[in-house]
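Q: I'm teaching a short session on how sequence maps to structure, and I want students to see two examples side by side rather than one. Could you give me a first protein with its sequence written out and its structure tokens following it? Keep the formatting plain so it prints cleanly on a handout.
A: Of course. Example one:
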Amino acid sequence: NEHTGAKWIRVDKWAPYQRSTFVTPAFAGYISGHSTFSRAAAEVLAAMTGSPYFPGGMGTFTAAADQFLDFENGPSVEVQLQWATYFDAADEAGLSRLYGGIHVPADDGPGRIVGSQCGRSSWAMARRYFDGSILDAPLSVTFVKSGENAATLRWPSVRGLRYTVESTADLRTRFAPMTSLQAGEVETSLEVGVAAPDAYFRIRKDDE
């Protein structure tokens, strides 16, 4: 009652070690998500804890006999996986996709490299949020006409921070709020109307 089992497979009959209904991309290779995300997590955990090693020196996971695999019988006996470091566990997550026939080695290696870069960059960005230095990022606004009575404002933003857009038609008049929005990206843009002959805009961080 096994789904596939271990056996020799003719190349013209080959399929990933998955159910027959599993969707296989119609191209030769693609970067392994398991390799990428696992390595990124390992980088963050190592940086956050100050050590690449699991607490106590060893991380473990037990696969119960005849219960662990999703669509095969096995393992026939209880198996305990062990890793000294977060990186060991991440590497094994990537290798599992090779063993399953879902990926080839060319998908695993680049995934680890990309994951490492993403993990380190994410931790560096997170620390700026933790210590507040993210708020020191300079705020410069670009104004681009997009029509006779319209323009686009663009400015570098901090994800999660709210910004208020203000305008005035006369610099002797106080700036009045137009709208307030929360940034979801590292750059924010807003279409604005420019009906008056002269129009002035400014962006204000809501913490200021």
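Q: Perfect. Now a second example for contrast.
A: Example two:
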Amino acid sequence: FRELLAPSRLGGGVLTCEQMTRGPPDASGRRSPVSTGQTVKIPADTVISAIGDSVDSELYHNFGISTDKRGKAVVKADTLETNLAGVYVVGDAMRGPATVAQAIADAIRCAQAITGQSPERYAALNVNPDRQSAEDKKGVLYCDPSSVHESRRCLECETVCACCADVCPNRANIVVEASGKLQIVHVDFMCNECGNCTVFCPYSSDPYKEKFTLFACEEDFVNSENPGFLPLDGGAVRVRVDGRSADTRDGAGLPAGVWDMIQATMKKEYLFL
């Protein structure tokens, strides 16, 4: 990695770059690079340009769509509608260079604004009634995509998703069945915060920070903001949900399903309990 170099020309097996430095902050606080007048030569026989793109805003201007100083369409944050009624902009055309996942998220928000329908309206149709068939796909690799339909490669996360449990090297994320559903419970005592579960989560969450958590001692419970529970003497537990904590022996007053999840976790019989 060579930082603050701006390629200027390629020839004779040499990539010539301007040595840059950070200029003064602009109105937004960004320090744009400026040339020092010096050059750096790097031997190179092949160069792949990956310098980022900018939005071609000519179409916006032709139709009277408002843009910002970088040429991106100005849209309403909640609907992604432009200043022209009924005209929406999503993805790179609105954000600039971004990811496919962000473009899909934009499209969902836009479609909801246009139709008035929740994107969860048909979510139940994605759940396979045969859960075992979805679980059986785990660990099966299809190296030749031409020989298999893509649906067979899908792990059906809507039916059963335990990626964070599969990839945790310390087994700090466990799967329990409560109220007829598979749930992920995080075991705080066994986690070293390696981040594997965050990297592989298909829902872009942080399981070790967000999943319902089993705590081994009061100090860990106090020092965390995770929803979860701490086993106490005499069969009681201290439960935190929505930032509020309470002690209970029978789950009275807890949101639906939470007590079942606690009971299912306790059946794992961890030694530190």
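Q: What should students look for in example two?
A: Point them to this: Residues 13 and 140 are 45 Å apart (CA to CA). Also worth mentioning: The chain has ten helices and nine strands.
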